[in-house]
Amino acid sequence: MRCFYSSLKRLNALSLLILFGCNAIGGTLLYGTLLGGTLLTASYSASASTSTSEAKATTKDRNSQINDAELKAFLQKNINNDLAIKDKFDAEVWLVGMRSRMTAYKVDHQVAYQILTTVYQEAHNSGLAPDIVLALIAIESSFNRYAISRVGAQGLMQVMPFWKNEIGRPEDNLTDIATNIRYGCKILQFYLQKEKGDLALALARYNGSVGRTVYSEKVLVLWEQHWRSGRM
To answer: Which candidate among 9, 49, 203, 221 keeps its CA 20 to 30 Å from the CA of 2?
Structure first.
């Protein structure tokens, strides 16, 4: 992705060292730091990502998205947009490669296939790299379509439910795979455009953690080490 390396420049020094010794297993990140020729590691769950103060700030910021008139207008205009996938062979190759990487998350085969096909379609509809969307889903919900956060965010991409009423679609079900991924991809697309292609800043906005780097680092590191196309 063209924005990835510019985004990495915004990560702190520790995060850059992490890239040399990080692995992702079953939704848990294993961080490794090189110090004096020794690899020091520390693991933590992807769902337990922030300190208490950061969690409170994220709760406030993510709920404050309801006041974003620009995002509301963007969703109202674009939520129904569809683009046809032109190269079905590339799509099939991508699906096979990514399915093997989902085995650690123990997702039912049919559900995994539906998630992958939807991510590929919706990411392309929104001008996003599907690999990045998978990394975001892994961090947000570990591929649990029924996940609900303590602030009420729902589904695979942890979408705030107030958006359904805000854009006039109260009947939408955010535990539905296709619906949730479409909402999430459109929201990320808006923030990526708002940040002029800076993926790290867009991810922070998506998470409601503007001005902090923890969330963006987690998604980008997991993408680099586990989900990036061409890497096994």
So the answer is: 49
Distance CA 37, CA 117 (A): 42
The catalytic residue among 92, 122, 140, 217 is 140
Burial 154-191 (b: 16+ CB within 10 A, else e): bbbbbbbbebbebbeeeebebeebebbbbbbbbbbbbb
Is 140 one of the catalytic residues?
yes
Q: 82 pLDDT band (50/70/90 cuts)? A: confident
Radius of gyration of the chain measured on its C-alpha atoms: 17
Q: For the whole model, what pTM was predicted? A: 0.71
CA 53-58-63 angle, 5° bins: 135
CATH number of 4-227, picked from 2.30.30, 2.60.120, 1.25.40, 1.10.530 = 1.10.530
Chain segment 32-52, per-residue pLDDT in tens:
322 222 222 223 233 333 343
